[in-house]
UniProtKB/TrEMBL annotation:
Organism lineage: Bacteria, Bacillati, Actinomycetota, Actinomycetes, Propionibacteriales
Official protein name in the record: Sulfatase
Source organism of the structure: Microlunatus ginsengisoli
CDD domains the UniProt entry points to: sulfatase_like (cd16148)
Listed InterPro entries: Alkaline_phosphatase_core_sf, Sulfatase_N
Residue ranges occupied by any Sulfatase N-terminal domain in the UniProt entry: 4-327
Length: 586
């Protein structure tokens, strides 16, 4: 038995031709759909990058118990289980997060692996003359990215190309061997949208601004020409991904692999390109553009080509699928199902799909309705982290984060091991957006949240059932105002109670020039405002969270307006702040 996983990052389902009309040139994705089963209702689970990969390894949801981090000591890793059973597992990737503290336990689970440097702000090539960073973490990433690009002057030297070339080399070397799994995983089309000119030439458009292929995680404040430019930059990178995918399909044709090799093509999440007035991910609710994913499967045991399936499937289904294909049973802790069963007969694996980010909305869909549950209280508490691998994305936990750490009772899936229980932290408080309910049948674009107590009550029951099955900590139920045990009732409804706040958060951010300005204003860096007693009083009065935010050092260089592009601030509050700051003497 042989299997190939081709995994992309931030690949948008709604822009791929197999899922509907699209301006994106992607003939190999159409070719893929003609050779495989296309899943129409695939949803993400835990976001973003490494939480999704933990699900891919373990077949369990990640986001209810911990944030971004490594595999835990108790985790069952699908590639490692295969390796122990005699299946050679090989990973080729240019995904930089595998090199960081928060991803460092994933790639050693494979029998062999290869990595290619240079994506995003990967600290790869050292060029001192590029300058000293004086603009914070993000500026350092952007500066390093420009250095990295200079070492990839041609498509052949691009990290994505090298990744796929290494995967193809594995195929050529091992086509006649048996019992192997190859995972070709590229960081693309994740931002920044770096391609060479011949891909950009496929998308001619008017744009005369500066280089802009890396939108920040915030509201769209640029003009339509700039938005169109970024969409075209993304499309060019998807077309490059399409070419790489075509090379894999060509190799399967040439080497005769369709007869005995499973092929799974998937992604972790999508990326907002102006939809809902937002760029990127993680700082807004998890709309369908981000979580309704493309997925394709070829199973040589039950060949079905050019067919589609409606059953709800998720990232947690990948581990049981691969284990089952190689004749192994999923472990008792795996919650996913076998995608091959869906491909054969469209057999449902679940009634609902959970998805979310640690500390954010806890979301559920039944395929028609999407329910986004916000916290009941403004403090988004209690939020707890359970781990024995205390690292964040790019660093270790700080000493101060261990102040209240204690060993918690073991969960059923931790194999008797007691994890550390620590106070968790969320990048964005979802309370600001309110609880949302959407009907995808009448509103596929999720433009108009509905208020319907009967439907909300049914979705709450589904949400609570799935959370309990996942052994969600009691703190998650308390945070969301839901019962950890017992029945769900009308007292647990939130959509109507939070509708005004949800509507306010959905309003576009007005242009900066529409607010009052003076010597101090919404465009003044926060640290300057806090250093001025009168301005600090304005901030304390209207935006107290900014005065005492534990992440103040990260946002101090930003202006109030820049912060409002990330965190919803009511327009009336922004206007009051602007008016009072403008009235202050120089």
């Amino acid at each position: 038995m042989k299997a190939i996983i081709v995994m992309f990052d931030s690949l948008n389902r709604h822009l791929l031709p197999p899922y509907g009309p699209s301006f994106v040139h992607a003939p190999n994705f159409e070719r893929l759909a003609a050779r495989t089963v296309t899943f129409d209702n695939c949803y993400a689970g835990s976001m973003p990058c490494m939480p999704a990969r933990r699900e891919m390894h373990t077949g369990r949801y990640n986001f209810l118990h911990r944030s971004w981090g490594p595999l835990e000591p108790w985790d069952d890793s699908m590639p490692e289980l295969l390796k122990r059973s005699g299946v050679h597992t090989h990973l080729v990737s240019d995904h930089p997060h595998y090199w960081e503290d928060g991803g460092a336990t994933y790639h050693p689970r494979y029998s062999t692996w290869e990595f290619f440097r240079g994506q995003e702000g990967d600290p790869w090539k050292g060029v001192v003359s590029a300058g000293v960073n004086q603009g914070g973490f993000k500026n350092a990433l952007h500066r390093q990215d420009q250095v990295n690009r200079s070492y990839m002057p041609t498509e052949d030297e691009h990290a994505q190309t090298l990744t796929f070339e290494a995967g193809l080399d594995f195929l050529r070397t091992n086509a006649d061997a048996d019992n192997w799994l190859l995972q070709i995983e590229t960081f693309d089309p994740h931002e920044p949208f770096f391609t060479h000119q011949h891909y950009k030439d496929l998308y001619p458009h008017d744009y005369d601004g500066p280089q802009f292929d890396w939108p920040a995680y915030e509201r769209v404040t640029q003009d339509q020409q700039t938005v169109d430019h970024v969409r075209n930059e993304y499309a060019a990178l998807v077309t490059m991904c399409d070419r790489s995918l075509g090379r894999v399909l060509d190799a399967m044709d040439e080497l005769g692999l369709w007869d005995d090799t499973m092929l799974l093509v998937n992604t972790d999440h999508g990326f907002l390109l102006g939809e809902h007035g937002w760029w990127a991910k993680s700082v807004q609710p998890w709309f369908n553009e981000l979580v309704h994913l493309p997925m394709f499967l070829w199973d040589p045991r039950f060949p079905a080509a050019g067919e589609r399936r409606d059953a709800l499937v998720q990232t947690v289904d990948i581990a049981p699928t691969m284990l089952g294909y190689f004749g192994l049973q999923p472990t008792a802790d795996m919650q996913g199902g076998d995608l091959a069963a869906v491909a054969r007969a469209d057999r449902p694996l679940r009634d609902g799909a959970l998805f979310g980010i640690h500390g954010g909305h806890v979301n559920v869909t039944d395929g028609r309705y999407v329910y986004m549950r916000a916290p009941e209280r403004p403090d988004n508490a209690p939020l707890e982290e359970y781990t024995l691998m205390p690292t964040h994305m790019r660093g270790r936990f700080e000493v101060a984060e261990f102040a209240d750490a204690e060993l918690a009772p073991a969960f059923g899936f931790t194999k008797g091991v007691r994890p550390l229980r620590m106070t968790g932290r969320a990048a964005i408080n979802p309370y600001a957006y309110g609880t949302l309910l959407f009907d995808l049948e009448t509103d596929p674009g999720q433009r108009h949240p509905i208020v319907d107590d009967a439907i909300e009550l049914r979705m709450i029951e589904l949400l609570v059932t799935l959370m309990r099955a996942n052994e969600a900590p009691e703190s998650q139920f308390v945070r969301l105002g839901l019962p950890a045990i017992g029945a769900v009732g009308s007292q647990h409804l939130l959509v109507s109670r939070q509708a005004d706040r949800a509507a306010e958060a959905a309003e576009p951010l007005p242009p900066l020039e529409s607010f009052a300005s003076g010597d101090l204003g919404l465009d003044t860096p926060l640290h300057e405002l806090l250093a001025n007693p009168a301005a600090a009083h304005v901030i304390t009065t209207h935006l107290p969270a900014l005065r005492h935010n534990e992440m103040i050092n990260m946002i101090a260089g930003s202006s109030i307006y820049q912060i409002a592009a990330v965190v919803p601030v009511p327009h009336r509050t922004l206007s009051a702040v602007a008016d009072e700051l403008a009235a202050l003497p120089a």
